[in-house]
Each structure stands twice: as C-alpha cells, then as structure tokens.
Amino acid sequence: MLSYTMAIQEESIEPVIHIHFHNRGGHTLDDLFHLWITYYESKTHFSFVFHTKDITESPSVWQVCKMAMFMYSLTLRYPIHHYLRKSEIMIPDTGIRRMLDWIFAIQSPVAPVYIYDTHNYTDIIDNNVTPIHIVLP
Questions:
Q1: How many angstroms separate the first and last alpha carbons of the chain?
Q2: Which among 78, 83, 128, 134 is least surrounded, fewest beta carbons within 10 Å?
Q3: What is the 3-state secondary structure (H, E, C) of the chain?
Q4: Quick check: 26 and 4 in contact, CB under 8 A?
Q5: d(CA 48, CA 109)
Q6: Does the pLDDT of residue 121 top 80, yes or no?
Q7: d(CA 68, CA 10)
Q8: pLDDT of residue 6
C-alpha cells in the first residue's frame, strides 16, 4: 500500500510540503487529501514536492483513480481560486512517469506540475536540473 512521510519547509511565506512516498506504512492518501484541504480551507498558498524514489511497489489502479478523482473534486469545490501554487514530482523511473501520465489524462492538475527525472541525482536543487515534463492546468 502506498503511504508517505512528510516534512514541511516554512522558511518563506508559502510553505513547501515535501511528501516522501514509500510502501512501508505511515500516512495514507486520505491523510494527504485532508492536509491539502486544510491548506485550502485556511486560504494558505503552498507547494508540494513529491519524492517517489522509495516506492517499491506500483500504486494500485484504485489509488491512481482516487488521486484523479480528488483533483477533480478540487475543481468543483474551489472553482475560482486554488491555493496550491505548484507541484514538483521527482521520479527515478519510467513506471511512475507512466502512472502520472495516466492520472493527468484522466484529470488536469489544479496547478502547474513539474516532473523531474532524478535517477542520476540525489538532490534536485543542488544540480539545477530542468524538468523533463511540465503539466499545466
């Protein structure tokens, strides 16, 4: 089962939330959705950085659909203003990239998504790597 650990950088006005996905148990997708809604309800702008290198099993089709459905629900619940500024997704392999392509084929993101190929890098910020793909709302 896909789960995650989290770290929040609050060094600037807008928090940057680092989500480290893995398969070892911890926070669930529902927890992530609750966190996301909490920022929307408090009208706080924020960004996500999703780290996927520790995913050892592909997410289920249900989890992929659940993410797409959640993004769709955001467009209905908040049709005018979205507080998510951007998402950056660090992917080390093509399997995760295909899953993301599938999610964004079902539902467009609510904010720009920058996808980085990180299989050769340990820290994207130190290496000034450009995104391999950008998905716009």
A1: 28
A2: 128
A3: CCEEEEEEECCCCCCEEEEEEECCCCECHHHHHHHHHHHHHCCCCEEEEEEEEECCCCCCHHHHHHHHHHHHHHHHHCCCCCCEEEEEEEECCHHHHHHHHHHHHHCCCCCCEEEEECCCCCCHHHHCCCCCEEECC
A4: yes
A5: 12
A6: no
A7: 27
A8: 83
* C-alpha span between 111 and 60 (Å, rounded): 24
Each residue's pLDDT tens digit, 19-65: 999 988 889 999 999 999 999 999 999 999 999 999 988 888 999 99
pTM: 0.90
Q: Which of 94, 93, 115, 3 is nearest to 48 (CA)?
A: 115
φ, ψ for residue 7 (rounded to 5)?
-140, 135
The two structure tokens encoding residue 74 = 């955001």
Give CA–CA dist 120/137, Å, rounded. Answer: 28
